[in-house]
Amino acid sequence: MFSLVTFLNNVIEPQSMCYVATANLDGETNLKIRQASLEVAGIIKEGQLVNLDGKIECEEPDRQFNNFVGTLYLRGKSPISVGPDQMLLRGTQLKNTQWIIGVVIYTGFETKLMQNSVKSPLKRSQVEKVTNMQILILLLLLFGISAVSCVGATIWNKIPWYVSLHRITPHNHVFDILVFIILYHNLVPISLLLTLETVKFIQAQFINWDEDMHYEQNDLYAMARTSNLNEELGQVKYLFSDKTGTLTCNTMAFKKCTIAGIIYGRASFCEFNDPKLLENFEDGHPSSEYIKEFLTLLCVCHTVIPERCGNDILYQASSPDEAALVKGAKKLGFVFTTRTPYSVTIEVVRHLRLYCKGADTVIYERLSKDSLFVEDTLKHLEIFATEGLRTLCIAYTDLTETEYQDWLQEYKKASAISQNRIQRLEECYEIIEKEFLLLGATAIEDRLQANVPETISTLLKANIKIWVLTGDKQETAVNIGNTCKEIFIKTLSINHNCGDLGNLLGKENDLALIIDGETLKYALRFEIQKKFLDLALSCRAVLCCR
């Protein structure tokens, strides 16, 4: 695993940034951005690599892919913080970057990839386990019968009244046992194993040829990678699934927004299209300043990287939500053009402001008492959520130069320490992330994949219980559930006493459990987790949402 102290590509990425693919580690296909230390990059750009002298102090090897705490000490320089954004893990692939310069931190079994590697278990079906046990019993029975027969043969040969015309030769007991094993070998059904393997292989081929599992767009068929577990498919009782990218297409489209208590966006199958927004902005509407700040925030509050392609700008983003918002702002005339490690450039006026976007549960607790449109925006969020749209709140706060510089000093101190760095950084963020003024909220659509409702309905008919994890609001989760052929018939809360179900507790009921993350945190406590499990097992579907 490399600690990416610096990597340079003056032709493609002059800001010492690169893209990496982490699909081998987390399964995500979006490219991630890694940013090298600018202090070291400056030294190398000056051609002083041979004079680079220092050391790196870092934490002990662990299994956490997203955590790394280290400090780079260069001779004559201040300590430089090294974190996950400066790391290239073993197993990732470098993309859109020709070459890098780095320092190796962990090797061999100390790398995070090897720390997470486990011995692959031998996957055997229940039928195979039962068959193996029965054959083992038959083998023991075969050996037992052969041993008894061998003893009987020995006794028979020593009976006095037995008269032989020839001299009796001594017997080899091992040879006698082998003879009886051969005589009784039909007791063990050797052909049964061959028959089972043949049937499994043919079943796997039928799975591969199944037209109902043929994705015609890419001409992809289902692939049975192993035939050991075919018969287990009919015994599946619980199905655990993520929502984004699994049930949905993971193709985000900016659909609607609410700014200063006004909803913009039409209910259509295309992306955001509402001339009223630009009309209010250009005609001096009372909300024009809020519209300007709202669109400015969409331009600057993200991790998107712009790439020039002739006269056009393409956006590379690790989050499809952020890419959708930046593209939406671009269509409205607020174009994000350039990013550096410490700033971004857009085609509007520059401000010293702190912009923030996030879930309503996070933003609302950080709002100032002077913030407007709080109740209206909350109502609009519920409307968006009931339409199955993903929502984010948008807010900002003004900073003075003194406030910013004081906070920046604290941030640099927190970034340089090795012990409890993450906790200190969180405390540092709490200092500045407060007294926000609400601008509005965005609504992004992530459509369900083809035939998802029909598939889930079929699974429910097969008595398969479905548990889904999502980061959406509860209203959005319920809407998606209703879209999926009425998975969610009734909503329960962990606060309901399990006694309300009475004798139905522990039995399958035509109910669904929807629980948010905050409640789940308490539901998993030791003293009540058994009751929560009993409640969950009593429902046909369980959904954990934001």
Automatic annotation (TrEMBL):
<feature type="transmembrane region" description="Helical">
    <location>
        <begin position="135"/>
        <end position="157"/>
    </location>
</feature>
<keyword id="KW-1133">Transmembrane helix</keyword>
<keyword id="KW-0812">Transmembrane</keyword>
<dbReference type="InterPro" id="IPR023214">
    <property type="entry name" value="HAD_sf"/>
</dbReference>
<dbReference type="GO" id="GO:0048666">
    <property type="term" value="P:neuron development"/>
</dbReference>
<keyword id="KW-0547">Nucleotide-binding</keyword>
<dbReference type="InterPro" id="IPR008250">
    <property type="entry name" value="ATPase_P-typ_transduc_dom_A_sf"/>
</dbReference>
<dbReference type="GO" id="GO:0005524">
    <property type="term" value="F:ATP binding"/>
</dbReference>
<dbReference type="InterPro" id="IPR023299">
    <property type="entry name" value="ATPase_P-typ_cyto_dom_N"/>
</dbReference>
<dbReference type="GO" id="GO:0005802">
    <property type="term" value="C:trans-Golgi network"/>
</dbReference>
<dbReference type="InterPro" id="IPR018303">
    <property type="entry name" value="ATPase_P-typ_P_site"/>
</dbReference>
<dbReference type="GO" id="GO:0045332">
    <property type="term" value="P:phospholipid translocation"/>
</dbReference>
<keyword id="KW-0472">Membrane</keyword>
<keyword id="KW-1278">Translocase</keyword>
<feature type="transmembrane region" description="Helical">
    <location>
        <begin position="177"/>
        <end position="196"/>
    </location>
</feature>
<dbReference type="InterPro" id="IPR036412">
    <property type="entry name" value="HAD-like_sf"/>
</dbReference>
<dbReference type="InterPro" id="IPR023298">
    <property type="entry name" value="ATPase_P-typ_TM_dom_sf"/>
</dbReference>
<protein>
    <recommendedName>
        <fullName>Phospholipid-transporting ATPase</fullName>
    </recommendedName>
</protein>
<dbReference type="Pfam" id="PF13246">
    <property type="entry name" value="Cation_ATPase"/>
</dbReference>
<keyword id="KW-0067">ATP-binding</keyword>
<dbReference type="GO" id="GO:0140326">
    <property type="term" value="F:ATPase-coupled intramembrane lipid transporter activity"/>
</dbReference>
<dbReference type="GO" id="GO:0005886">
    <property type="term" value="C:plasma membrane"/>
</dbReference>
